[in-house]
């Protein structure tokens, strides 16, 4: 690749705002690009943790082009692949055409070229890469003894029971009928790994058991095949640009194991995410260890402590988890500890070789808050749930049945749902919200849309898919041009809805926060008003990602400032029902968001 390729040259005489207005690389972005390239000869990689809207895609592409890397892998969410391809072509003036690897015929052909060692820029999703690297294999009997998933649940019982006298496992009787299954010794090929047993199966014989009768259910496990480690040994990658690197925040995630196996000794790693450890500082270990494995030759010490427990003791504060009687809970003979925070806020990221984070030039303004009382039926259901762990709901047939809550997490979920709208059962027996359900938030929602912002496009956020669909039905029944965005939509349907909203063909977009946080750009050109009917529970990072969909460069400038120049008229309002988890959780979210920001915003490594 030519090291002379640039998107648009940086003009250091311009301010960041002036450069953005002209479509140029800003001085701030240029500094970050140069700093990334400088680090190539110093350590193993860089974390670019800029907030959303800072141009991480632009900077990652520019660093790859200027650095002269021959074999580059861009890992991004599937709905961002086209953006990466377009960006790479644009910034290289068409000299570099990225190859997307996915399940299509062309995508598989690109994967073959990638594995064969052909130079080029490749784009793939982390899930697709992981599925090539892991294989489902039968779970055998002696392995099944240690599997934690064989536990009693609401609808099933474990297949085996332990005979305490011998320690062996036997098939367990059911209330009506018996599991028909057996273990059979089979011949294994010489050198084969694993026990010489056929996989154990469960055959359902009881008519009352859910599932097809006499249909064997084979238990499987996911096995890491070390696919890329073997394939890429002869053809290592020069650079991995990992967008949304929070996907490997969990050190046990299969995706992390796959990415580690793709990263060779000479591979430079650029991890990008404004929320790279989600909401848990304990997750900082996983991503940073991927970016900086091994030992710093200058100090003789690891860039990042390799043992997670030792790393945690060095940087974080913890407390022992106790049971209801105050006794420490133990697992595998060790006391279970819970991370409570950092010993010194921001100290760990300040110790990293090259950590870059710039706060957005557009700060998130304080939200306006509307507090309302729940409607009578909602209040009654919430009181029932808290008092008796059950409430009476209306079935599809018009009769009342009890909705029972078996455990505190479900209680919390049901309380949050009931605070949004009255609950009921649908025709399949699932918890739902009927079209005529009582909902206290609909009145203030209607007022904001019709009186505060008449004629404007508005985004409406909630963390409940059931509620998003309910609001869509109610608004459409009232004649409003509203559409819901949630996890049930296909990739194509989401793309079509996004374009329709940007084009003004849809006025109101009701979105679940979980499905709307990353990989979406352009909505800020159409909408600058947001209503929160609920937030992602305990997840300020996800909420911040959601609001940044509309609060970023390129947003609408509809108001006029004191100097006569157009300025933003962005506003967001939170509608909160009193005395519910939505209200009590608000202060917790504010505190957690402050703590996360303090951990992220360490001084940028020079």
Care to count the β-strands? Answer: 31
> What separation lies between the terminal Cα atoms?
27 Å
Radius of gyration: 27 Å
Estimate what percentage of residues fall within beta strands: 15-25%
User: Which structural class do the helices and strands define?
Assistant: alpha/beta
Mean pLDDT: 80
Number of helices: 19
Query: Which parts are unreliable, with pLDDT below 50 for 5 consecutive residues or more?
Result: 1-7, 141-162, 172-217
> What summary fits the major beta sheet?
7 strands, parallel
Order of the strands making up the biggest sheet: 3-4-2-11-12-1-19
Shape: globular
Percentage of residues in helical conformation: 25-40%
Short description:
Helix content is 31%, strand content 19%. The protein is of the alpha/beta class and 606 residues long. Helix 2 packs across helix 3 (56-66).
What does this structure look like?
This protein is of the alpha/beta class and 606 residues long. The chain is 31% helix and 19% strand. Strands 3-4-2-11-12-1-19 form a 7-stranded parallel sheet, sandwiched between helices. Strands 20-31-28-25-27-26 form a 6-stranded parallel sheet, with helices on both faces. It is globular, with a radius of gyration of 27 Å.
